[in-house]
Amino acid sequence: MQSLTREADQAQVSTSAPVHYFDLQAPFGPLRIVERAGAIIAIDLSPKAVPAGWQATATPLLEEAAAQLQAYCARQRRDFSLPLAPEGTSFQTSVWRAMQAIPYGQVSTYGAIARQLGNPRASRAVGSAINRNPIPIIIPCHRVVGADGSLVGYAGGLEVKRYLLDLEQGAGA
Question: What is the pLDDT of residues 31-49, one digit of tens each?
Fold first, then answer.
């Protein structure tokens, strides 16, 4: 399983470094993988216009990320091994790390993550941090559901969330 780049290393991912991206057609729709300074910084599940200055360059890291995502969608991969450098607060980063600990094919709840982080009343804050997850799928926010097991909120839409959960649970995705 990959882990978030340590915060000390994250600080070294220069925001002035060039940004490279690669667009991929996944079974559930288009997505854009974004890299800066040798680390994945984002996956956009609803890619639109490309920001000025970004380069459409198929770097070795972006090619590897695309290959791993394609293997995941083909049920040939359960974990990702890519350098990640998402930008967020220390709380957001702790939530994202907690999501990475949710096993493939399983789900957790906002409340369970809040309890795991030592603050059982922080469910809404956990939800806010999950909403800001810049690297969905690899940091598996689709594995977080409501307290009653219902599908709630997902950047790519609930249909994509259902697709990913069905894929992992062996249903006819």
Answer: 999 999 999 999 999 888 9
Assigned fold of 7-73:
Double Stranded RNA Binding Domain (3.30.160)
Residue 86 near residue 4 (C-beta atoms within 8 A): yes
Q: Which residue numbers are catalytic?
A: 141
Contact (Cβ atoms closer than 8 angstroms) between residue 74 and residue 165: no
Residue type, 102: I
Q: Alpha-carbon distance 146 to 132, whole Å?
A: 17
CATH 3.30.1330.10 fits 90-168, yes or no: no
- pLDDT of 101-123, one tens digit each? 999 999 999 999 999 999 999 99
User: Which residue, 143, 28, 133, is CA-closest to 84?
Assistant: 133
* Beta strands, E only, the chain: 19-26, 29-36, 39-44, 108-109, 144-145
Global pTM value: 0.88
